[in-house]
Amino acid sequence: MKKIIPLILLAAIVISSCSELKRNNPYDPGGSAYRGVTYKGDISYPDSTSITAMIYNEGGLCFGAYDSIKGDCVIKMAGGVPDYIGSTGDAPGQFRSIQDICADASGNIFVVDDKNMVQVISVSNSISSWNLTNVTVPANKLFIASYGGKIYVTSSVDKKIFEYTEAGIFIDSLDLSSTAYGPFTPGREFVSAGHVYVVNAESQDQIVRLTGGLVQDGLFDEGDYIYDASFNGAQDELISSGAVYNVDESMVLSLKWGNFGVGPGIVLDGKLIACDPASGDTYVLDGRTIKRFGE
Amino acid sequence: MKKSLFIAALMAVIFTGAVYGALSHNKQAVKYYLTGVSLYKNNDFSGALKYYNAAVKNDPKFWQAWQEIGMCYYSMNNYPSARKVFGYVLKLKPNEPVSKKFYFLLAYNMKKKAPAPASMPKGDMMWRCAIMPGFGQFYNGETAKGYIYSAAYLASLAALITYTLNQRSAVADYSNTNFDFSGKYSAAQEAQKKVLIPAAVAVCVWSVSMLDAYLSGSDGKPAYAGNTVEIKFDKGVTVAWNIARVDF
């Protein structure tokens, strides 16, 4: 017995020294601990483009962007080939420093820049516009969202959210200059199945929830800087600089991802997020790279 | 052969010890010596050796007794010890003809028919091999085998350590990745399989070394090995140390 002790020790050393191999990587679709999100590769877009707003619309990504060749424009990426709409300028059909874009259920894209107007790009790429009534000029910090057939615009100058019809008829506004947490500057907007949310543009961690008719019915402190958000058909996905938070309507966290592992599937410099409700895929602008995630 | 040996021993006695006074001035030594002679005549070599040893213990310069010790070893086929003793006699009494004859005769015979080296006890060999394959073979004087076993074992251990580190790295690579999961998991599986190869080789080398030690080792105490000659006196005092230190 004494003589086989070294053999047993050798086996024990080998077994204990080897790391246990289990297919339990949380990002691995084939693993036992899969969390339902995995990195699916990068999405290419023109190198000359700087993206300021990103949505998923009509089967592809759409950017509000400045392109060093084309100027300020909206870019539709459906089909993988960029379709540049608009140019730099102050006239209708032209853009200057696009702040935000959104799309309605029909696929029309609504654009706000540093002008006091909303420009509407139809599915066939024709451009129309309407003025933002009751919004102080110049309204240099505008964000826009479409929900329930209405357009919601926030103004950091007025510290209000404005409600319009899709044709540009003013309906109502709501003062959001302060909340229970203190001063509030309305910033980026996002929607869910039943609500419109407004992020505090200053602190970026406080979120006001509104029901239809501009009634505030929720206030949340996320504890992280929220730069953008998108509704994936089931949940809202909030992006911070280093992670994505999947939350329900009450901002209750169900999954934090994008912060795991080593490789291209990690979010290091998250800026914008867009979701394809049909497939559930999520697109994250990380630095200058658009990363695609999904099940 | 036995008869000629007896004649040679008798001649040694006649030539060297016939004259009582010429043997030794130590009466007790002579008494032991003569008892040894009588036992030798009856082919009781180990008994005779015991008394001759007692004689040289009483008188270390008693070369005739030393010479008979040499004859006893010779009769017991312990040629290396016999030759050492005859050499010692020649140191005490240079050119002593009988010792000289046997000394050179043994040199010739040992060269012609070198006895196979005796093995170490298998127990001693095996525990050494259990600790480190090849160690037991070195202990038994099997240098080549010792090098082979130890080199093979150390090489397999080195490979085992290397492959173990690679396995750990591959598993960490899979666990921390966020892309190419199948590829990295397969790589980790391959790395895990590779660890088993040097582990199996190490176990085989260890086992073969142990088996070899078991087969090569002897069952009893170690016989003559190297320069040690065991000569015991009545009280268990050995003069082997003295003989081993003699420079011929």
- Kindly provide the radius of gyration of chain B, computed on alpha-carbon positions and rounded to a whole number of angstroms: 29 Å
Compressed to H and E, one letter per element, the order of chain B equals HHHHHHHHHHHH
Q: Tally the helices of chain A: what do you get?
A: 1
N/C terminus separation of chain A? 54 Å
Helix content of chain A: under 10%
User: How much strand content do the residues of chain A show?
Assistant: over 45%
Helix and strand pattern of chain A = HEEEEEEEEEEEEEEEEEEEEEEEEEEEE
- Strand segment tally of chain B: 0
Query: Which segments of chain B are poorly predicted (pLDDT under 50) over 5 or more consecutive residues?
Result: 15-19, 222-248
Strand portion of chain B, in percent? under 5%
Compute the average pLDDT of chain B.
79
Radius of gyration of chain A: 23 Å
The biggest sheet of chain B, with number of strands, parallel, antiparallel or mixed sense and barrel status, is:
none
Strand order of the largest sheet of chain A: 1-28-27-26
User: In terms of quaternary structure, what is this?
Assistant: heterodimer
What is the share of helical residues of chain B?
over 70%
Low-confidence stretches of chain A: none
- What structural class do helix, strand and pairing data of chain A support? mainly beta
Description:
- The complex is a heterodimer of chains A (295) and B (248).
- Chain A is mainly beta and 295 residues long.
- Chain A has one helix at residues 5-17; strands spanning 38-43, 49-57, 60-67, 71-76, 83-85, 87-88, 94-95, 100-103, 109-112, 117-121, 127-131, 142-147, 150-155, 160-165, 170-175, 178-179, 182-183, 186-191, 196-200, 206-211, 215-221, 228-231, 236-239, 244-247, 253-257, 270-275, 282-286, 289-294.
- Chain A contains 1 helix and 28 strands.
- In chain A, the strands form 8 sheets. A 4-stranded antiparallel sheet of chain A has the order 1-28-27-26, with no helix packed on it. In chain A, strands 2-3-4-5 form a 4-stranded antiparallel sheet, with no helix packed on it.
- In chain A, 39% of the residues are buried.
- Chain B is mainly α and 248 residues long.
- In chain B, helix 5 (63-75) packs antiparallel against helix 6 and helix 8 packs antiparallel against helix 11 (181-216).
- Chain B is rod-shaped and about 100 Å long.
